[in-house]
Specification:
The complex is a heterodimer of chains A (362) and B (313). Chain A is an all-alpha fold and 362 residues long. Chain A contains twelve helices and no strands. The relative contact order of chain A is 0.10. Chain B has a single domain, classed as MetI-like (MetI-like fold), CATH 1.10.3720. Helices cover 73% and strands 1% of the residues of chain B. The radius of gyration of chain B is 25 Å and the shape is flat. At the A-B interface, α3, α4, α5, α6 and α7 of A face α1, α2, α3, α4 and α5 of B.
Chain lengths: 362, 313
């Protein structure tokens, strides 16, 4: 006789407990609801006045992290629970980063619009304006002139240097340039302004020198490395077959670069240049140092102080006059103008990259 | 079998070739010359500050080094606080974009974070002083009430919220995009085989990230943090607008007396400076330049030594 052993029920770890597919969503909503109920009760009991929306979402999310971990640990085990907790935390990190962006754009639009919409804002300067009124024409003119000249200086140097790195450069000089271009992208903007000041103060022997062209020099110190980096990336994307085909046809190297390599990568290069303009157009510190500030129009880059948009925002806020609200309003409106310009440049650059980028066979 | 021809055929050098190639060499060299010029001109203009008369300094400061000391402290203190806040969040965002978000959304979400880098620093300053500082002030009061026995959190609490902690929060937001961008690139470079091997062994997504992605990306995370540190050290306008400064060393995070940073100190005092005062500010700028240059060079060396593996920069 053989004894029949009782078959133990197998626990199958592959199909072991699993939370239903939509459960994280429901747990999240439930957590928010609980937090909302808690704050509503606080509100009704009169302990605090007003319903705390921020607190609802913060505590609701924390509650969600705890709830999903506990639930998953009970049903799915500790490994899966940790995974769910990390997913929640990582998503929360992303949302946390978006909050300042949304808050900045919202406050700038709300605070900036009243002065932004006044008829004189884009048609007059601050000359002889005390209190409300006046505009940013002088600052916009200055920004366009200073940034424009900085672009004129930076693009040829940056583009040629990136051509050197991609097409000619081998050995020590190329390595040194690559390394120091990377290092230069980290130079603080105010140091660039101090450099321009030190340079021109020595050249013209004028210890109080302020003029727009110095601002252009300072900005190009910041801009050149960005142009080099982005153009270099774009030139590297040009397939070698194109160069080889041109060489095989007997085209000289410099003409190959000018007629084959550059036209192929021009969209990417333009994108890079626009992004670099967007980066320097909001720089305040170097222009505060070397271009200074004024309330009058100045079209001459080579003499006298020149107002620029970021410095306008700063000085309106820092040196508020008697009717301080008018100054703060103008500061916000200037900030709004600046953000609109930067976002437009960014968006346009991305669109150009999207439309005109060479279609690689992938 | 043919033996390789020993002589290489040189392309004919036309005048156009010579002009063009030397133009590119000159442009490349101009960049190096520019960096050297920054150092040289700052040094020349700084020299008078090192031998300045004690009466040129405000307060009871007698020489340049005791003037710049608290500024260096404030700069490093605020930057490191910002880094402590920014790095974990940046790693989280980078992981979210590279491994958690739906593939189709990932690139768009990356652009969204890059938009944060496009906001000018002066706007961050305005936002910090009008939105963030009043928002966190009640929170600071509670912190001081509960944890006042702990030196960095001891009172008296600032009534405006314009403290070094607020500055660090603003700085953290400002350096988030660059740290995120580099971490994201590096996480995406993780060899797919490593990830698939971990998943095939039954690892959950987090275990896969811990075993494959993070060890691979660690040097990249370190150098991304150092680049972020470089940015935070040199950030000017946000600090100048938000902080309420005092010319001494303060460890307290929440009081209305805070050590200023070098960059903000220059921006605040330069427009009115004259005589040797200008040279003193330039000399502090030179110190900032040297510190950020060293931090950036170190970060780049770390990145470059890993370039063969990661392709990130």
């Amino acid at each position: 006789m053989t004894s029949v052993t009782e078959a133990r029920p197998l626990t199958n770890s592959l199909t072991a407990g699993k939370l239903p597919p939509r459960s994280p969503l429901w747990v999240l909503l439930a957590s928010w609801a609980v937090a909302a109920a808690f704050f509503a009760m606080l509100n009704l009991s009169g302990a605090v006045d007003g319903f705390n929306v921020v607190g609802t979402f913060v505590f609701g999310t924390v509650l969600y992290c705890v709830a999903i971990y506990v639930l998953s640990r009970l049903v799915e085990g500790s490994r899966k629970a940790t995974d769910r907790l990390v997913t929640a935390l990582v998503t929360a990190a992303f949302v946390i980063a978006l909050l300042p962006l949304i808050s900045i754009i919202y406050t700038t639009v709300v605070n900036g619009l009243p002065a932004f919409l006044t008829p004189t804002f884009f048609t007059s300067s601050q000359r002889n304006v005390v209190g409300a009124g006046g505009g940013v024409l002088h600052a916009i003119t200055g920004t366009l002139l200073v940034t424009g000249v900085a672009t004129l200086i930076s693009v040829p140097i940056g583009l040629l240097a990136s051509i050197y790195l991609v097409e000619y450069g081998r050995g020590r000089l190329a390595r040194a340039i690559t390394f120091f271009v990377d290092v230069m992208t980290g130079i603080p903007s105010i140091v660039a302004g101090l450099f321009a000041f030190a340079l021109f103060a020595l050249l013209f022997n004028d210890p109080g020198i302020r003029f727009g062209f110095g601002g252009s020099i300072a900005l190009s110190v910041l801009m050149i490395p960005v142009v080099v980096r982005s153009s270099e990336e774009m030139l590297k994307l040009v397939p070698n077959e194109l160069r080889e085909a041109a060489f095989a046809l007997g085209v000289p190297k410099w003409l190959t670069i000018l007629k084959v390599v550059l036209p192929t990568s021009i969209a990417g290069i333009v994108t890079g240049v626009m992004l670099s303009i967007a980066r320097v157009i909001g720089e305040t510190a170097p222009l505060l140092i070397i271009a200074g500030f004024t309330s009058s129009m100045n079209y001459d880059l080579f003499s006298e102080r020149m107002m620029t948009l970021p410095v306008f925002v700063y000085t309106q806020y820092a040196n508020q006059g008697a009717d301080s609200q008018a100054y703060v309003d103008r500061a916000w409106a200037g900030a709004l103008t600046l953000i609109v310009i930067v976002m437009l440049l960014n968006g346009l650059a991305r669109l150009i990259a999207h439309w005109f980028s060479p279609k690689l066979g992938r | 079998m043919t033996t390789a021809a020993a002589t290489t055929i040189k392309a004919r050098q036309r005048p156009g070739d010579r002009i063009f190639s030397s133009a590119t060499v000159i442009a490349g060299s101009v960049i190096l010359a520019m960096l050297a010029a920054v150092a040289i001109f700052l040094l020349i203009e700084s020299l008078p500050a090192f031998v300045a008369d004690p009466s040129e300094f405000s307060g009871d400061v007698t020489n340049f080094w005791s003037y710049v000391g608290p500024l260096v402290f404030g700069t490093v203190y605020s930057a490191i606080l910002a880094l402590i806040m920014a790095v974990p969040v940046a790693i989280g965002i980078a992981l979210f974009i590279s491994h958690f978000a739906p593939r189709k959304l990932a690139q768009g979400l990356g652009y969204l974070i890059d938009l944060l880098a496009a906001v000018p620093s002066v706007v961050f300053g305005l936002w910090g002083i009008t939105v963030l500082a009043p928002l966190v002030q009640p929170f600071y009061t509670t912190l001081v009430e509960w944890f006042g026995w702990f030196l960095p959190l001891s009172g008296p609490v600032s009534g405006t919220g314009r403290t070094i902690l607020t500055v660090s929060v603003v700085l953290a937001v400002m350096i988030l995009p660059i740290i995120t961008a580099i971490c994201r690139e590096i996480f995406l470079q993780t060899p797919l085989l490593h990830e698939e091997a971990a998943l095939a062994l039954g690892a959950t997504r987090w275990e896969m990230i811990r075993m494959a992605v993070l060890p691979f990306g660690l040097p990249g995370i370190i150098s991304a943090s150092m680049l972020g540190l470089g940015r935070a050290l040199g950030e000017t306008m946000a600090v100048a607008m938000v902080l309420s400064p005092s010319p001494e060393v303060f460890f307290q995070l929440l009081t209305s007396q805070n050590s200023n940073t070098i960059a903000a100190n220059i921006a605040l005092n330069f427009p009115e400076a004259h005589g040797v005062g200008v040279n003193i500010l330039l000399a502090t700028g030179l110190m900032l330049f040297i510190v950020t240059l060293l931090v950036n060079m170190l970060a780049r060396v770390v990145i470059n030594s890993r370039k063969a593996f990661s392709g990130a920069n």
